Amino acid sequence: MSILKELSKKLGGYQIRGNSEYGFECPKCSEGKGKNHLGVNLRKMVYNCFRCKYSGHLSEILSHDMIRKFKDSMVREARNKINKSTKIPDFCSS
Q: Are strands 55-57 and 46-49 parallel, antiparallel or unpaired?
């Protein structure tokens, strides 16, 4: 996922917390101590530091073009899952 690579370049390594949740070092309060207080939710496209309350939309950290590409890829992925799971009954096919 290229958005994680971009965030890693800007914020350092990350920790997986859940399906679309990741933990990064907060640029405001971590001081390079390796503490992943900054929670990033890729589904909601927001971040929040649980320590210093630094928060906002990912567009403040990443370029709008990067976010648009990520959202487009998420929509394509969802459509593919729907198409694969949808079965057409035999009597409907010609």
A: antiparallel
